[in-house]
Fold:
Amino acid sequence: MADDPMIKYYIFRKSIENMLFIIGLYPPRATSKFYRFIPYFNMFVQAYTVFGILCFMQLHIDNLLEVVSVTGILISNSISIVKTSCILMNLDDLLKLLKTNDEYFNTVAKSSRSKDLLKNFSTFWYLSWVLLISCVSLFMCATFPPMMQYIIDNIRHINNHNYRLPIKVVYRWLPRYEGISYVIHWILQTYGAVSIFLMTCSIQSNFCMLVFQMISEFRHMSYLHTHFDELNDKDSTVRYCINKYIMLLKYRDLIQNIFGPIILQMFISNALQLCVSLFILSQLRADPINILFFTAFVITKISESCICAFAGSQLISESEDFKHTVYSINWHGNKRLTCWVLMSLNQRPMTLIACHYTTISLNILVSIVNTTISYYFLLQTLQSD
Structure:
């Protein structure tokens, strides 16, 4: 049962809903009036952390390694604020899209006509698991060691007047972290870290699921055309596919409006964050916790980029396959079918474009790798100077 793709899909769908609910972005399940304030509190905590990191960078501006070591965390917190803002501005459209797509997918999934509806879903499933595991590893490496050290020192009655927080921050009004001030800031940073990794996993997986639902709809239409000669009412099938294609174009536009800014800044920032993490890894010496932390950070950013890029490429491929399937039906001599085939062939492959700037596909991973390498050697040059 666990290997059943349909069971995996519903587990995947429910997990996304749960993560969105925890960070305050799934109001349909909310019962409290204060629920809508959760995203704003999350953004406040992340903005507070960003301010502390900027103060830390200003204090250590002459130390390149110290500045670079917090750059990735600074970008992650800043981007999480942008992600939350984008989702909040388009929350109604997102909920409508989720509901409509779910209703259609459930209707098609209950029929046994499209056997390959969930083909390649395991790839999305495993990529999402890699992202989740790497985020959890990142969270544990950042938050647990400082608190364990604090607990051990208190048990042994060791007076440490400046404990280490999960994230390196400096606040002018707080010269050292000890006692209740340390616990409060540890809780705030831990809460912020939880909200960031839940935001990352839920948004990437949500985008992936919405695109996969569109892919499934293309597969269902391809199935209808593959068995076109067996259908009794061919005209109604053609009308159904035309209406469905128009609907998919509207869904595509909604997905671009909601996720376009998020994915564009993700692709741009991931190159910089990967470069920073690789640079830090090359400088670390015999520090297993930090090595594990930055390794998990690299895996998180790579899997985050792969999920979006793979989903975009799969949509392009499936829309191309649909055009080929339409062309392969027995349309010669039938004016209505000929018109439908010509309309289909004149359509460009369905692509997702982030902010009218770049196509979301696997090709963009090459750009990320090239940019990462360029920035990495630039940092090496600055370090040697």
Q: What stands out?
A: The first strand starts at residue 353 and ends at 354.
